[in-house]
Design goal:
Helices cover about 75% and strands about 5% of the residues. By secondary structure, the chain is mainly alpha-helical. Helix 1 runs antiparallel to helix 4, helix 1 packs parallel to helix 8 and helix 4 packs antiparallel against helix 8.
């Protein structure tokens, strides 16, 4: 579980995340409940991407200072960038599921922002635990890499097969479990998670939404975290690239929400990316695909799929 990152950079990373969440929550509190527009989402998305690139530049400088090698610094910075792009691209599929959840529960647009903020905090905590455990397992048992690779290939094939099919929450096992455990009111009570009904404290639909968003993120993390471990085994790079991608998830959600129909074929591209990364893990002891090539393949697949989606987007 050794990392090339110096101890002080871990502290800087924690400070970055705390400061980013504080600013986000401060802005959220000041704005109150409101519907996020495309322009606001675009500016926030650009801000999160810029913040990630600034941190990556700092990481590059720290590695160069420690190793004295520009080549090593370039390689590690590319690993961060590739991991960040992989998490960002796989987050698109996550966002489409969030849209499905919000539509199913008819979540008012003004409440969606708070739900996503709480979901992001939960995702950071859960993914940190998963990444540290995953790094330890890979350090102790090399063969798990092949298991992860096979899982990603199977997931990619399943995603390709399911792409374009109508999704529904009616038969979702997580939703059925929640309904059995929690009595839920039929109406929202503002942004409250609990309300009183006939003198009894019960959950509101908003609590169900938050719980489903958290469960969905954990499920998707099972795909994305092994995918980043295929690029690097450095827990610092895996964790930081993952978290910085998650920090921009809320803004990315509102940005894609307005253009979801124009990315109707993106799941096919994500499926190919998962199969590629899974194959990379399976052949790692035979041939290690350079990080620059991995980055180029991932970017190329995304660009081709997005162009393909735009040209075949249904008229609305």
């Amino acid at each position: 579980m050794e990392s090339i990152a110096p101890p002080w950079l871990w502290l800087v990373f924690v400070a970055f995340v705390i400061a980013a969440l504080f600013v986000d929550f401060a802005v959220l509190k000041k704005q109150g409940s409101h519907e996020v527009g495309v322009r606001e989402a675009l500016w926030w998305s650009l801000a999160w991407v810029l913040l990630s690139l600034v941190f990556n530049a700092m990481f590059w400088w720290a590695v160069k200072d420690m190793s004295g090698s520009t080549a090593v610094a370039n390689e590690k910075a590319l690993e961060f960038l590739t991991g960040y792009l992989i998490e960002k691209s796989l987050a698109v599929d996550n966002i489409f599921v969030f849209l499905l959840i919000f539509t199913y529960f008819a979540v008012p647009p003004a409440f969606q922002k708070r739900v996503l903020m709480i979901g992001i905090i939960g995702a950071i905590v859960l993914r940190t635990v998963m990444i540290l455990v995953g790094a330890w397992l890979l350090d102790q048992f090399h063969w798990i890499l092949y298991l992860f690779g096979a899982f990603l290939i199977l997931t990619g094939v399943k995603m390709w097969w399911a792409a374009g099919q109508e999704e529904s929450l009616d038969d979702n096992p997580a939703l059925r479990l929640l309904r059995k455990v929690l009595p839920v009111s039929k109406e929202y009570d503002g942004e409250k998670f609990w309300t009183l009904e006939n003198g009894k404290k019960i959950a509101t639909p908003l609590l169900m939404v938050v719980a489903l968003v958290a469960m969905t993120d954990v499920i998707f993390a099972v795909d994305s975290i092994p995918a980043i471990f295929a690029i690097t085994k450095d827990p610092f790079i895996v964790l930081t690239s993952n978290v910085f991608a998650i920090l921009g998830l809320r803004a990315m959600f509102f940005l894609l929400q307005a253009a979801a129909s124009r990315f109707h074929l993106l799941n096919y591209g994500l499926a190919v990316i998962l199969v590629f990364i899974g194959t990379k893990m399976m052949i790692i002891d035979i041939y290690k695909i350079p990080v620059a090539i991995s980055l180029g393949v991932v970017m190329g697949i995304l660009v081709i799929t997005m162009i393909w989606s735009s040209k075949t987007a249904p008229n609305t």
